[in-house]
Amino acid sequence: MKKGTKLELKIEDYAFEGKGLARIDQEGTDKKFVVFVQGAYPGDKVNAQIRKKKKSYAEAKLIEVLKPSEYRVEAKCGYFGTCGGCKAQDLDYGVQVQYKEKQVRDIFERMGGLDGFEFFPIVPSEKIYFYRNKMEFSFADRRWITEEEVASGEEIPDRDFALGLHIPRIYDKVLDIKECFLQSEISNDILNFTRDFFKSRDVKIYSTKTHEGYLRNLVIKTAHHTGELMVNLVTASEDTDLISQYGAELKKNFPQITTFINNINLRKAQVAVGDYENVIFGPGFIYDYIGKKKYRVSANSFFQTNTLQAEKLYDIAVEFGEFHPDDIVYDLYSGAGTIAIYLSDKVKEVYAVEAVEAAVADAKINMELNNVHNMQFIKADLNKSFYPIAEKHSFPKPDVIVADPPRSGMNPKTVADIIKLGPDRIVYVSCNPTTQIRDIKEFIENGYELLKVRPVDMFPHTYHIENVALLKKR
Ligand code: SAH
Fold first, then answer.
1. What is the gyration radius of the CA atoms in the chain, in angstroms?
2. What is the whole-number distance in angstroms between the Cα of residue 335 and the centre of ligand 1?
3. How many CB atoms are located within 10 Å of the residue 185 CB?
4. CATH of range 6-72; options 1.20.120.420, 2.40.50.140, 3.20.20.30, 1.10.418.60
5. How far is residue 238's CA from residue 179's CA, in Å, rounded to a whole number?
6. What is the full per-residue pLDDT of the chain (474 aa) written as tens digits?
7. How is residue 404 annotated by DSSP?
8. Residue 114: which of 432, 437, 431 has the closest Cα?
9. Fold match flag (98-127+306-473 vs 134-290)
């Protein structure tokens, strides 16, 4: 077997990041050789072609499904398979969540070698379509040409204008998208209106090669509970006339839009965040609720993207934390203070730590919005030790620490700080169970025991998993 070899495989299992797994006999040994097939599911019989071969396993590309798994369903979206947004729309949702649950279990039990903790069933998402409150579309001056277009043999139009989503591993081309089922009907309408508006005026798209051109991203945020709607156009420079024309047309065509912002990104980095922003109409932010708490969401602050599931996630964190009116709580990686505020009326005081200035500013506003007075926000980089900061400001010792770090998990310095502070309970919210288990093992080696674990599905049709764990001091 080598790169390019074609094989007929029976998929037996499901591995990380949505890979079907087949085991085949190895000549001359009684050991099995593992082949991962992206996009194949257990129960499938497939034709696949080896893309990469290693000593003990190979990665293969799915060529054809010969006999489908009984859990395959028709993908709702015509872009599925090309677009990078959804990875498992063609798998029954109930089975998707079972696999996610199994993955978390495997990570904790097999990779982590842990047992004796309570594992609660995954919380499925209430909505499996239109569940996102934020969509970030990209402009590109190189449109991704689909296989069907090539196969049609016809002349290919509009090669140099695309507004849509990136496809996996391709950074300079964008798949032009007219409809996406993750946010809402109206965001599709805004997307298409925006494409037509700029294309008909021959406005240039920012080029990652020449660094010329104007259009970079279109970000749409919708508030689940209030219905408020934000449009944020990210551009490479300022064009006062053009932006006010676009703003006026937006307002006329979509009276539902409550605020329109222009972020200006002067850097080469392809991020949908500006160096500064101009509010064209409306207040420049929207409000939404998680549970009973009200939050202000601005263009560049982090807000959980599945509002309904965020409430469930926070409820689990609150349940695990077993908060008491005398408790001192630290909320690390606090973002716009959402978790801290969510639990503030259950405890004595909360100290929240976050690195991004704009998020800390939002957090302070969110505190006022919710009439919260028992909280302090500290802007600090948790890649450095925060222990000296806690000491300098004479923060009382915490009873509970809630931490919700990014995918990379906690910095070892933060883990060490938490151990030194020695809270009775640690509620660890994570979007990456692999780094979470790494950190949890460190806590276990230093006087803690793992009591509870519960995954929550915030992102149907993707591989992303959110997971809450509770540790208690022995
Ligand atoms: N708990 C919040 C935010 C979680 S997202 C919520 O539920 O909405 C993770 C947060 O960690 C982001 O706000 C990000 O800005 C912050 N963060 C990432 N790296 C950090 C660091 N080194 N120090 C402090 N905060 C960091």
1. 24
2. 5
3. 10
4. 2.40.50.140
5. 29
6. 889 999 999 999 998 778 999 999 887 888 889 999 998 999 999 999 999 999 889 999 999 999 999 999 999 999 998 998 899 999 999 999 999 999 999 999 999 999 999 999 999 999 999 999 999 999 999 999 988 888 998 999 899 999 999 988 888 899 999 999 999 999 999 999 999 999 999 999 999 899 999 999 999 999 999 999 999 999 999 999 999 999 999 999 999 999 999 999 999 888 888 999 999 999 999 999 999 999 999 998 889 999 999 999 999 999 999 999 999 999 999 999 999 999 999 999 999 999 988 888 889 999 999 999 999 998 999 999 999 988 888 899 999 999 999 999 999 999 999 999 999 999 999 999 999 999 999 999 999 999 999 999 999 999 999 999 999 999
7. -
8. 437
9. no
83, 86, 180, 431: the catalytic one is 431
Amino acid found at 298:
S
pTM: 0.93
Q: What is the CATH number that goes with domain 134-290? A: 2.40.50.1070
Report whether residue 152 contacts ligand 1, using a CB cutoff of 6 Å.
Answer: no
* Phi, psi dihedrals of residue 320, rounded to the nearest 5°: -65, -35
Q: Which two tokens stand for residue 297?
A: 């969401």
Residue from 133, 354, 430 to probe ligand 1 pocket by mutation (most atoms less than 8 Å from CB): 354
Neighbours of 16 (CB within 10 A): 15
Residue of the CA atom closest to atom 17 of ligand 1: 333
Residue with structure tokens 């591989």?
A: 463
Contact 337 CB / ligand 1 (< 6 Å): no
What is the C-alpha separation between 402 and 410, in angstroms, rounded?
12
| Rounded Cα–Cα distance for residues 313 and 288 (Å) | 16
Query: In the CATH hierarchy, which fold is given to the domain comprising 98-127+306-473?
Result: Rossmann fold (3.40.50)
Q: Can you tell me the distance from the alpha carbon of 125 to that of 275, in angstroms, rounded to the nearest whole number? A: 35
Q: Is 431 among the residues known to form the active site?
A: yes
Q: Whole-angstrom Cα distance, residue 108 to residue 208?
A: 41
The DSSP 8-state label assigned to residue 350 in this structure reads: E
In the chain, where the domains are located: 6-72, 98-127+306-473, 134-290
